[in-house]
């Protein structure tokens, strides 16, 4: 059984992160209860291009407001492709002995840099970036281990 988790489970600061961290602990503990089923976790970052991803949010903001809202210019996030996410789940499925948490090496990116690339790719130079401020429970920099 593969549990899909997130980098937000590492040193969680909000309910989502805490719920993912608790899910990981339950899955790892479940592995000690039975030998018939292997229980394993995968911990990933933001999957690029999926519904609700930051790219879709930024594109929508460019269309509707002519500006992109970011929380902090130096905030970073881990990113992975859909193909990398699939590979991570398959690796955990076929290589696990049970009780592990699989994490892949992922590139991190400043959210400002991502916004700038999307603005340049749109060909619309008049789109601005607005700094909104860090929200409660939001990490300034993601991490996958602790």
Q: Report Rg.
A: 18 Å
**H and E string:** EHEEHEEHEEHE
Give the full name of the CATH homologous superfamily. NAD(P)-binding Rossmann-like Domain
Just give the CATH class: Alpha Beta
Structural class: alpha/beta
In a few lines, what is going on in this structure?
Its EC number is 4.2.1.-. The chain is of the alpha/beta class and about 150 residues long.
List the helices and strands and how they pair.
Layout: E1 2-6, H1 15-30, E2 40-44, E3 46-47, H2 54-65, E4 67-70, E5 76-80, H3 82-95, E6 101-103, E7 108-110, H4 111-122, E8 128-131
Parallel strand pairs: 1-2, 2-6, 3-5, 4-8
Antiparallel strand pairs: 5-7
What does this entry look like structurally?
By secondary structure, the chain is α/β, with parallel strands linked by helices. The chain has a single domain, classed as Rossmann fold. The chain is built from four helices and eight strands. It has helices spanning 15-30, 54-65, 82-95, 111-122, and strands at 2-6, 40-44, 46-47, 67-70, 76-80, 101-103, 108-110, 128-131. α1 (15-30) links the parallel β1 (2-6) and β2 (40-44). The longest helix is centred in the N-terminal third of the chain and has 16 residues, at 15-30. It holds the Pfam family Polysacc_synt_2. Residues 1-140 form the Polysaccharide biosynthesis protein CapD-like domain. This is UDP-N-acetylglucosamine 4,6-dehydratase. Belongs to the polysaccharide synthase family.
């Amino acid at each position: 059984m593969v549990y899909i988790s997130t980098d937000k489970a590492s040193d969680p600061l909000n309910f989502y992160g805490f719920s993912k961290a608790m899910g990981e602990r339950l899955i790892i503990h479940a592995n000690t209860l039975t030998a018939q089923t292997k229980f394993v976790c995968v911990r990933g970052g933001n999957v690029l291009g999926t519904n609700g991803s930051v790219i879709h949010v930024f594109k929508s903001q460019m269309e509707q407001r002519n500006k992109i809202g970011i929380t902090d210019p130096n905030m970073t996030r881990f990113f992975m492709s859909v193909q990398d996410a699939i590979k991570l789940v398959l690796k955990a499925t076929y290589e696990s002995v049970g009780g592990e948490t699989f994490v892949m090496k992922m590139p991190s990116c400043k959210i400002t840099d991502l916004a700038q690339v999307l603005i340049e790719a749109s060909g619309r130079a008049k789109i601005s970036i607005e700094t909104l401020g860090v929200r409660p429970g939001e990490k300034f920099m993601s991490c996958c281990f602790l």
